[in-house]
Structure formats: C-alpha cells, structure tokens
C-alpha cells in the first residue's frame, strides 16, 4: 500500500494504450490507478487519488452512476434518499447475507490453499483508487478470492449474464480486493429470487468502464453538477428517487414534452394532528398512542405518520421523539392558535446545496423581483378563479369584479419594485375579500355570526376571520415541512422580507394556494354546515374556534388536500397533497437554476 | 413471490404462532402495519415497500418450522370493492385520511 502511495504518478500523465491493468492492480508496486486500453485518439483521464478529507466513492454508487448518473449524484452528492418496494425487497434479500458464519478474512498470504472459506459483510477502501465497497460475501478458494454480490430479482437473460451496472459494481469490489493484495480473477452475482449465480468476468473493458465511471462520478460531484434526467426512460418507472428527481417535469422545461403521470408520493403517510389540550403522545410498539383524558387511546402506526403536528399544550415523550427523529418524521410545534413555532427533525437531504442556491437567489435582486411578479400574479388569478367558480351573488356584479382582478394580475408584470407589487396585491385582496360573502350559501349568509366585512387578524375579530387565520397557519405549516423536505430553508424568503419567527419562504410559496386551498376549505366547511355559530368563543376582542370546531375545520382542509386537480403546466391529475410536494421540489430545482422558471399553480 | 408494486393494496394477515412469547412479538409488530381485526388476524393497507418490510419483520420473528403466517392480498385498496360478509360486528375497509385529535 505504502509503496504505491509514494510512487503513484499523476494519472493525467498516463500513457494511452497501456493495458494489462488487472495485473497492475494485483501487483503492489505497479503504477497508480489502472488505466484502460484507450481507443485511438482518446485519452483516458482519471480523477486524482482521493484527498485526505474526501469521501470515497462507494461501489454501489458507481453501479447507480452507470444506471443513471443523476440518481448517483442525487444520492451521493446531494444526500437524497427515498425507498420503495424494490429497495425494501433488496433489503430483505440482503438479510440472508447478514446471518451465517462470518470468519475474518485471512491476510492474502495466509489464505488456506487446502479448503474453501466463506465470509460476509466486509468493508474495503482504497484512497489511491478513491473507492470503497461493502462486500456481501467473499469466497476464498485455492488462494484466490471471489466477491459475490447479492441481488434481489431474477437473472436477466442477456449475453453477459447480468446488466452492466451490477457487473461494474462487482468489478469495483474485485479491484478493491486486488488493491488489498488478494488474487481476484472473477466476481459473481447471486440473484436471490431465481437462485442463480452469474459469473462476472473481469475483462479489461469492464475494468476500464468501472474506473471511468468512478472517476466521472467523483468529478461531477466535486464540480457540483447535477446531470440531466433520463428522457422517458423505462428505468425511471421503478426508480425510488422518482418523486425527488422529477425527470418528466424537468424535461418538460427543456423540450416542452408532456409529463404523462405524476410522480408517486415518497410515502403514502399522512399528517397526524394533536391539538386537544392535555393530550399526551407516547410511543408504543410500532405505533404512536395519543391519550386524551376521558377518551379511549388512539393508536396510529408510525409508518402512517408523515408529520406530527402538535398545537398548544400537548406533550410528547422522549422515546417518541427519538423514534420520529430516527424515521426523519418532522414534529411541527405550534401554539394553540396554530402559530408555527418551529419543527424538530425532518431536515430533508443531508446536504446544503439547495439552501446555498436559495440564499444566492434571495441576494439576486432582479431574479427575486421577477419571481415575485409571477407569484403575485398567480395569487390574484387564483383568487379570481375562486370567485368565478363559487359565485352565488348577483350576476351583474361578477363580471366587472373579475375584469378588475384580471387587470390587476396583468399589471404585476410591469411592477418595478416590490413595494409596487405589494400595492397591487393589497388592492386585489381588498376586492377579493369584499366579495367573499357572495360565495356563502343563503343559510350561512343568513347567520349574523358569519357576517364577514373585511379580513382582519391578530386577533381575528369574527368567526370567518378566525377560520381563515387558522387555515392559513395550517397551510403555512404544510408548506414549511414540504420545503424543508426539499432541502430549502423556510426562514429565508424571496418576496416576504426576513423577520425572526416568520417562515418567509413558506409564506411566499403559499400565496397562490391561499385562495384555492385555504379559502376554499373554509368555504367548504361553512357551506356544508360543518361549523355552527356556537363553535366559536369571543374574548378580548378576538374570536377563537372551540377544539371540536378546529378539528372539523382541519379535517375539511385535509380533505381538500386529498382532492385531485389538473396540474396547469404538466396536465396530469394529481392530489393537492402531492401537488404541494411537487411544487416544493420544483422550487428547489428553480433555485438551483436547473429549470428556468418556477411554474406556479394557476388552475383554470 | 412478493408483490413489488408501489400502489397500496389491502391485505389480511393471519398467523398461527406456537410459542406465546413469539406470538406476542408478532402481535406487537403487526400493530405497526395494520388494524387488529380478530385474534391473530390483522387488516392492513400497505404499499409495496411497507408490505416487503412487514414480511421481512415477520420472517425475523417466527420459527419457520413451527409457525405459519399468511398474507392475503385483497387487491388495490382504492379500486376494489371488498366482497366481505361480516356477521356480528361490522367490517370496514381502511380509509386513508389524516387523523386530527
């Protein structure tokens, strides 16, 4: 090892055409990183040996790079991860390798030549190659070792016995074994479902591909570059990172191709709200148990909780917090009035790349204003849509009002400053809220308690304002967690100024959703008669919902989130809940400069 | 072979466990995946990933020679109308809805 360190000449100076690299690697004194036999006119340049604090590239990631470069960079360079049925099946297949005898692998010169030896779970690393690998099984026989990688599924019927990514992975494992001084002439893949073993021949070509891929991946990650998504590839369909990568959506901007199906949600879990004062949330077995005095305990499977929302004096035990942190499930802490205080856990990807780009956007005044213009326009258009869809007032009033709002939305494009935008937004909001009572059913309009004149807050003075304030707070929380999961910082806004305690980015992104999600959920709850005048208490100039009414209103909001909508840009049907996750991811793509603009949600 | 789709399916999981200690562990584990329906019977609604995790968790707990677990797939949770006749207490398919307490 040491001799090769001192003698490793820079790979850039390698001689094209040099071959016999397999021998080079098993031979300790040979020159540094093995070079493939380059074709005429092609110079094989590899990344230099790993620096002291540089992370080594895992063999598994080189497999992914060959499968899809973007996948490898998202996972390894950006700290993103998501599981699905295939990854779970893979873990299950791998369990077999964890059990059974695992004797230590003897030193290369101490390998027994008279018997075979089998061991499991070996970690190997080489700074010279910049590679590391976790080997499932190593078989030693007659002084030679064979790395065996366990794969779920069946053996593919292709000439090489297995697909290239898997062969490359085994090849990297073999190279690391050679680097450690072992004689390794072949690798193997074990396909757990069909119980078939495939021999992987270490050809010069395969070794060249493996080292080339390792080098490309390292250089791409070092350059902070994210490769473009695959184009309508069959590989995407079962990829677990589909909801994070958004291949069709990103390609839509590049080529105008239609995104055919919405990406699946990362998990089908849903939020759990606990807002009954005095409630206690504990962990029991694999569930969260909510204890409320005088009521039967409610158990909710931990896997089914996407986020735990605690409002007001509700307690949560430390074991429950630990388990939620372990599962990366965020806990949103809110006041009794649903003022967002902060979150525990749910920190999103293990990387600051997106946040760094977000701060750069926030510092770029022209880009910031361009975004704000489209944002305010989208908000005004959406409030217009809500008025148009739910109008129950006189027909004559409707037309001029809609025209006025359309005009205001168009004017945003010419706003020179954020202050001018604020003026347009305020004017539109005044028009919109003045017209809001025209959307109530006669039964609701007849109730004096539900009279609504203008929007007020801090504290809201009447029941309708109280409902709006509550739902806006809940909407802010929904977005705060969605943008944290996407790697963004909720506290740094683009349109809203930064103020302590204000999740400015969440407030930015919810603007277009206020009318279509929050206001419509309040309208739904009021018009359906889910809220009655005696569900509210007034005190000290403010109005509040009673606990039962809060529960009903939040349930109405969550129902609204489950309703489907057509994405205005991509044209597919998607639930509002997933739409929010997609929009948060797209915003992250936008701040990183991968897509030229953020497509606002403006339904027809 | 285990199903690998990521769409949610409804399942009935029934088990015979010969040892009370293991039975207790299986019961506790199953509470993380579904709703307890009857003695040693759970009703679950799972996507492909959780289904694989459940099978894997059960595999670790049981004694393959003495115990028996069956996982019955009732079909896609959203689309299928369950042909269930329930005598006595009522049977309700699990609906996906946010819990507000």
From TrEMBL, chain A:
Enzyme class, UniProt record, top EC level: hydrolase
Family matches, as Pfam families: Cas_Cas1 (PF01867), Cas_Cas4 (PF01930)
EC number: 3.1.-.-
Region annotation (Disordered) ranges: 1-36, 88-112
UniProt keyword annotation of Nucleotidyltransferase present: no
Keyword annotations: Antiviral defense, DNA-binding, Endonuclease, Exonuclease, Hydrolase, Iron, Iron-sulfur, Magnesium, Manganese, Metal-binding, Nuclease
GO BP terms: defense response to virus; maintenance of CRISPR repeat elements
GO molecular function: DNA binding; endonuclease activity; exonuclease activity; iron-sulfur cluster binding; metal ion binding
Domain DUF83: 61-246
Binding site for Mn(2+): 425, 496, 511
Catalytic activity: exonucleolytic cleavage in the 5'- to 3'-direction to yield nucleoside 3'-phosphates
Keyword Heme: no
InterPro entries (UniProt xref): Cas1 (IPR050646), CRISPR-assoc_Cas1 (IPR002729), CRISPR-assoc_Cas1_C (IPR042206), CRISPR-assoc_Cas1_N (IPR042211), CRISPR-assoc_prot_Cas4 (IPR013343), Dna2/Cas4_DUF83 (IPR022765), PDDEXK-like_dom_sf (IPR011604)
Cited function: CRISPR (clustered regularly interspaced short palindromic repeat), is an adaptive immune system that provides protection against mobile genetic elements (viruses, transposable elements and conjugative plasmids). CRISPR clusters contain spacers, sequences complementary to antecedent mobile elements, and target invading nucleic acids. CRISPR clusters are transcribed and processed into CRISPR RNA (crRNA). Acts as a dsDNA endonuclease. Involved in the integration of spacer DNA into the CRISPR cassette.
Assembly and oligomerization: Homodimer, forms a heterotetramer with a Cas2 homodimer.
Name of the protein in question: CRISPR-associated endonuclease Cas1
Natural source organism: Blastochloris viridis
Automatic annotation (TrEMBL), chain B:
SUPFAM superfamilies reported for this sequence: TTP0101/SSO1404-like
Residues reported to bind Mg(2+): 16
EC number: 3.1.-.-
UniProt keyword Ribosomal protein, yes or no: no
Assigned keywords, A-Z: Antiviral defense, Endonuclease, Hydrolase, Magnesium, Metal-binding, Nuclease
Key word Hydrolase present: yes
Cofactor(s) recorded in Swiss-Prot or TrEMBL: Mg(2+)
Any Pfam family matching the protein: CRISPR_Cas2
InterPro entries documented for this protein: CRISPR_associated_Cas2 (IPR021127), Virulence_VapD/CRISPR_Cas2 (IPR019199)
Domain of life: Bacteria
GO molecular function: hydrolase activity; metal ion binding; RNA endonuclease activity
Biological processes, Gene Ontology terms: defense response to virus; maintenance of CRISPR repeat elements
Quaternary context: Homodimer, forms a heterotetramer with a Cas1 homodimer.
Family statement: Belongs to the CRISPR-associated endoribonuclease Cas2 protein family.
Protein function: CRISPR (clustered regularly interspaced short palindromic repeat), is an adaptive immune system that provides protection against mobile genetic elements (viruses, transposable elements and conjugative plasmids). CRISPR clusters contain sequences complementary to antecedent mobile elements and target invading nucleic acids. CRISPR clusters are transcribed and processed into CRISPR RNA (crRNA). Functions as a ssRNA-specific endoribonuclease. Involved in the integration of spacer DNA into the CRISPR cassette.
Protein name as catalogued: CRISPR-associated endoribonuclease Cas2
Source organism (scientific name): Blastochloris viridis
Gene that encodes it: cas2
